[in-house]
User: Fold this.
Amino acid sequence: DAGVIQSPRHEVTEMGQEVTLRCKPISGHDYLFWYRQTMMRGLELLIYFNNNVPIDDSGMPEDRFSAKMPNASFSTLKIQPSEPRDSAVYFCASSLAGWETQYFGPGTRLLVL
Amino acid sequence: GQSLEQPSEVTAVEGAIVQINCTYQTSGFYGLSWYQQHDGGAPTFLSYNALDGLEETGRFSSFLSRSDSYGYLLLQELQMKDSASYFCAVNRDDKIIFGKGTRLHILP
Assistant:
């Protein structure tokens, strides 16, 4: 298996622009997680899905953030409009059965100018 | 409230043994996970403890004491490639919370 795939790997955009991050989980994994990592706040869970259904989005910082999982092999995290404080590394992870063993993608490094 | 505490940095010598501690305060505790992250890389799963005791996986072992709200990661026969950040994470029934990470420096 190719592992969790994320795109783009790097994104530089200007404040106010829409940003869409993409994730393909490992085939057969029922759980998908979106995380954000910054030096100040560390690794934070934003939202997670079970069988394509959003279970908990309490970690999503603001209404500017939204996530979807239209099918078992694809998820998006959208920021609209983006702000400089959204600059971070965004990781997608998937797992077979919940929290225990999560496989992380390579991450998307987002810089909002 | 909920919190995890782990040392920010630890230094050890190649070939030695190092222990990274993690204490937590949280309700609805399910288990304690450990992840390794190299600079510029993604977190990689190392171990998971749901019950008290020691779990061993090769050179790495992880320990949990639920009564003490405490766990540790033990790395043996340290190699230079073990230089990385190590995160403990507490799994609750509806959340996962990561510690700030421990930066492990290994001296030759």
Chain A touches chain B at residues 33, 42-45, 55-56, 91, 93, 98-107 (CB under 8 Å). The mean pLDDT of chain A is 95. DSSP finds no helices and eleven strands in chain A. The CA atoms of residues 20 and 45 of chain A lie 18 Å apart.
